[in-house]
Amino acid sequence: MSLEALTRLLPAYARDLSVNLTNLADETLLSEQQKWGTFLSCAYAVGVADVIQHIEAASAAVLSDEAADAARSAAAIMAMNNVYYRSLHLMHNQEYASLRASLRMNVLANPGVPKLDYELWSLAVSAINGCGLCLDSHEKVLRGHGMSNVQVQAALKIAAVVNAISSVIRAENGRIAQIIPQAAQ
């Protein structure tokens, strides 16, 4: 399985997504670990099995087991944090923001990969999950450690394309699931 196989799952109307996926896989703004960890964390954030399978296969040549686990953990911890912090940000009652979260987040202190990589993956997942507070927080850390705006943008583009591809594949799988029972009748 590879990204080529993933692009073959996309219908003709999603050709732009195929081209974008190929271009992002070839980009050199991020290190290979940063790039493939972003792809993997975003695939897990969206949670479409076909996309996860193909991106895991494509990233296996680059990511160590520890880095792959860290990418998965970025998706997991941000699934929790993005809901919690997005809610605090959206609520008019600011009392909640002053309360201690008391949510376990130990992986943030020791993710098993360089902090910069983990922050990048957390930013990309936060984009998928729509948490502006988390996006601002992770972007500030990334920029403070010397990451350029075009590098941050590269991660956001990966998040956007993985999310879009996942949406198309989920929709197509649903459409096919509807067609098969009708054809059997």
TrEMBL record:
<dbReference type="InterPro" id="IPR003779">
    <property type="entry name" value="CMD-like"/>
</dbReference>
<keyword id="KW-0560">Oxidoreductase</keyword>
<comment type="function">
    <text>Antioxidant protein with alkyl hydroperoxidase activity. Required for the reduction of the AhpC active site cysteine residues and for the regeneration of the AhpC enzyme activity.</text>
</comment>
<dbReference type="Pfam" id="PF02627">
    <property type="entry name" value="CMD"/>
</dbReference>
<keyword id="KW-0049">Antioxidant</keyword>
<comment type="similarity">
    <text>Belongs to the AhpD family.</text>
</comment>
<feature type="active site" description="Cysteine sulfenic acid (-SOH) intermediate">
    <location>
        <position position="134"/>
    </location>
</feature>
<keyword id="KW-0676">Redox-active center</keyword>
<keyword id="KW-1015">Disulfide bond</keyword>
<feature type="active site" description="Proton donor">
    <location>
        <position position="131"/>
    </location>
</feature>
<dbReference type="InterPro" id="IPR029032">
    <property type="entry name" value="AhpD-like"/>
</dbReference>
<keyword id="KW-0575">Peroxidase</keyword>
<dbReference type="InterPro" id="IPR004674">
    <property type="entry name" value="AhpD"/>
</dbReference>
<dbReference type="InterPro" id="IPR004675">
    <property type="entry name" value="AhpD_core"/>
</dbReference>
<protein>
    <recommendedName>
        <fullName>Alkyl hydroperoxide reductase AhpD</fullName>
        <ecNumber>1.11.1.28</ecNumber>
    </recommendedName>
</protein>
<feature type="domain" description="Carboxymuconolactone decarboxylase-like">
    <location>
        <begin position="95"/>
        <end position="169"/>
    </location>
</feature>
<feature type="disulfide bond">
    <location>
        <begin position="131"/>
        <end position="134"/>
    </location>
</feature>
